[in-house]
Design goal:
Blueprint (H helix, E strand, L loop, with lengths): L1 E3 L5 H8 L9 E6 L5 H13 L4 E6 H13 L5 H14 L2
Parallel strand pairs: 1-2, 2-3
Helix pairs in contact: 1-2
Length: about 90
Amino acid sequence: CKNYGREVGNPEIDQLAGRFSVNRGQVGMLMCRSLQDREKLIKCCQDTYRDHRGLLLPLTDEDVLKLLEAKKQVPSSRPEEDFLQNLAREIAMS
């Protein structure tokens, strides 16, 4: 998991994907404040996944705030499960 304060591109994706291994795992979260081009980042994550270099799940501050608000509304809910599952599906099933 890495927290970026600026726009994320291929170098950052490659750096994170390079940390994956059989022993360390193949899934990671990429946290960033915001995205100027979400579609471009998702495409980079899809390419990384298709190349068998791991699954990167990008989340923004807005995503986290929405999840926290959903949890606040229904404390017994698990909104992060659906969110992360849908995000993983968007990247892996492209």
